[in-house]
Amino acid sequence: MPLDRLTPLLERFRVRSRLFHTGPLCGTTVFAQSAGHGFLHVLRRGEMEVTHRGADGRTMRQHVTQPSLLFFPRPLDHTFINAPAEESDFACATIDFDGGATHPLVRTLPAVIVLPLDDVATLSPALDLLFAEVDNVRCGRPLLADRLFEVVLIQLLRWMLDHSHDLVLPPGLLPGLADERLAPALVAMHEAPGEPWTLDSLARTAALSRSAFAARFKEVLGRSPGDYLTEWRLTIAQEQLRAGMTVTAVAAELGYASASAFSRAFAQRLGCSPRAWLGLAA
Questions:
Q1: How many CB atoms within 10 Å of residue 75?
Q2: How far apart are CA 132 and CA 264, in angstroms?
Q3: How many CA atoms lie within 13 A of 33 on its CB side?
Q4: Which of 5, 119, 266, 273 has its C-alpha lying 20 to 30 A from 135's C-alpha?
Q5: CA angle, 201 as apex, 198 and 207 as ends, to 5°?
Q6: What is d(CA 21, CA 268) in angstroms, rounded to the nearest whole number?
């Protein structure tokens, strides 16, 4: 069976979309960032210029001349500029990742991905269904359109895994999941974060020696296997605490010897105890 690299992630940290626009956009349209929200736009017809702030504060510009998918995984102000034209046609949705900016995939994705639809043949069936819904007002249209946007996003993530080298991504989770040796170890940690994983056991999962696994992991993900496992556990812990689980229950599920051991690891990474963090997050 092929290794499923996405399900263990997306089952724990779900993604939800909400359609908010279909049809033309004329002139200048500003999409303001909102905490916890990304954006997924589909340009079905027309062309436009996209602008947004880069990491260095400078304005980044890109001219889009063909039907394309535009994905903003994190909150980011961006602007579409296009001449008024009847053939201009868009479908736009907000994307909500459980955990917001701490979502394991969101942390490692570029600020924006612009992908011509012709480059992703597997998107065609989902987009055909999506546009069939947005073009016809029928019962359940908004709900079905929202679900179809989620299908489009998963198709996009699949494509990114298969083409990670073409995207020239920085070290992080997506390149790690795209690596045929590292992916089994990452999926194992994602599926069973409470297991007593060691460098030896993870290296065996990857069919590599300890030293080769540790070096490859650090090169591709930018951190050690132990650091990644701790971060993954604490990311889950934050969601579980928000959901009302006790510190003791979270510690037991995530493989810590005691609630105090979990609290120490939590405080070392996040700067305060689980209970203090929960009070700030409320």
A1: 15
A2: 53
A3: 14
A4: 119
A5: 135
A6: 43
Report pLDDT digits (tens) over 2-56.
889 999 998 888 889 998 888 888 788 999 988 778 999 999 888 899 999 988 8
Nearest to 120 by CA among 152, 147, 98: 152
CA distance 8 to 52: 32
Encoded amino acid at 263, one letter: S
User: Which residue pairs from 140-147 have beta carbons closer than 8 angstroms and sit at least 24 positions apart in sequence?
Assistant: 142/19, 145/19, 145/91, 145/93, 146/16, 146/17, 146/18, 146/19, 146/93, 147/17
pLDDT digits (tens, 9 = 90+) for 219-273: 999 999 999 999 999 999 998 998 999 999 999 999 999 999 999 999 999 999 9
What is the model's pTM?
A: 0.87
Average pLDDT over residues 137-155: 83
Judged on CB neighbours under 10 Å (0-12, 13-18, 19+), 257 is exposed
